[in-house]
Amino acid sequence: MQVVIIGSGNVASHMAKAFVLNGIPLIQVFGRNSEELKKIAEELNVPYSTEHLAEADVYFICVSDNSIEDVSKLITKKDGLVAHTSGSLPKEILVGEYRKSSFYPLQTFSKSKALDYKKIPFFIEAENEADKELLFELANKVSENVMESSHEKRKYIHLTAVFACNFVNHLFSKAKEISDSQKIPFDYFLPLIDETVQKIHEIEPKLAQTGPAVRNDVRVLQLHEQLLKDESLEIYKTMNHSIKKMYEL
Amino acid sequence: MQVVIIGSGNVASHMAKAFVLNGIPLIQVFGRNSEELKKIAEELNVPYSTEHLAEADVYFICVSDNSIEDVSKLITKKDGLVAHTSGSLPKEILVGEYRKSSFYPLQTFSKSKALDYKKIPFFIEAENEADKELLFELANKVSENVMESSHEKRKYIHLTAVFACNFVNHLFSKAKEISDSQKIPFDYFLPLIDETVQKIHEIEPKLAQTGPAVRNDVRVLQLHEQLLKDESLEIYKTMNHSIKKMYEL
């Protein structure tokens, strides 16, 4: 059983690494960006190509959602299995005569950040039992946490992840913008941030809420609004409004 | 040197514990809520009162910002030192003939969650050098991370903390609302959330951003908007708008 990864971005490079580290026979990384492909190929000692897609049993398309459809047309092998790694798109976005599937790793991938692949939940959807079993077998080599998921459910998993990860990271960026503007080292906030996350391992987030909005501390809320402008002020108002709604304040 | 803590909420209970654990002579916890005071007093083996405020060298007012002014009037001792623990209010909010100060712990406190006090940054402001030194001495017994901070700077530290902690926790609440609505266990998202935070210990948050907004993935953004309503939709739009602005998309 031989697999190919298509793509050279964050997801592709981590999936390639996870496969190679766990003995999955990755025979090629394929894509457009030869510089990025070369880095992956050299690190993992795997062939790469920008021109000739290798013949494989399973193709993993690890490119941005906007490109999946176009990229999927490059695969001409009819008796192969193709999986995309999108949280939001159905497996039917893939265009070809091969068998279609989805192989969604619930994690945030940045190239320069090492990951413990064992803990990443993988969500799998396939056309038939045999393909599902094959994808489970591969995912189980990488992770301890492999599940089946319909497209309908996967959409909501991805949406939840956007709130719990992408938007959270953006709040960190905005927080750093504020502290940078006053020459306050962002490192001061790391113990607070770590504790914010540790807390929800033990307490429901709704019960862990602290801060001026949940106390309906009008004086502080007004003071803060005076210190903010533009998108930061919009975020401040939107989040406080939502907190007040949640706690019926 | 004897100290009293006024208050029985999250901050008061953790401050009392941090003081007792580190050998600071806490002679009383004082407040209105006898039930909560009793819990703190029994756990730490410290006297409590709802009526007679003990005579002490330093009083720590650990109550919500809205109540600090009123509570400060209860302290009639003229040669004492009084500190509030608010991130946003000036020390001059305190009303009395005593010396005024601020003693701000940068952390999120929930009663049921144990904390490593050593890592909490404390920000101190006082009227004179002697008081500053005294408060540093106390804070240094609790934490490895004690600094001076003007009110002006402290306001921005608190504001940054609201973005990095309070709003982040609310995003976790909203994320859980979405996953609960589809009967998806919120535990699935904990490795993702942990990694989101581990990442910013190594990478600037601005460089760690992932997700559909920073990829300007219009198809996914539209799909997600269709799945959301009310405050969740407002947050979705506000955050995506801010992400696009930050990355000039």
UniProtKB/TrEMBL annotation, chains A, B:
Show the InterPro entries listed in the entry: 6-PGluconate_DH-like_C_sf (IPR008927), DUF2520 (IPR018931), NAD(P)-bd_dom_sf (IPR036291), P5C_Rdtase_cat_N (IPR028939), TM1727-like_C_sf (IPR037108)
Matching PANTHER family: CONSERVED HYPOTHETICAL ALANINE AND LEUCINE RICH PROTEIN (PTHR40459)
Q: Which SUPFAM superfamilies match?
A: 6-phosphogluconate dehydrogenase C-terminal domain-like, NAD(P)-binding Rossmann-fold domains
Protein name as catalogued: DUF2520 domain-containing protein
Q: Which Pfam families match?
A: DUF2520, F420_oxidored
Residues in DUF2520 domain copies: 120-242
Q: Which part of the chain is the Pyrroline-5-carboxylate reductase catalytic N-terminal domain?
A: 3-76
The record's listing under Gene3D superfamilies reads: NAD(P)-binding Rossmann-like Domain (3.40.50.720), ProC-like, C-terminal domain (1.10.1040.20)
Q: Which species does this protein come from?
A: Chryseobacterium populi
Q: Please list the coiled coil stretches.
A: none
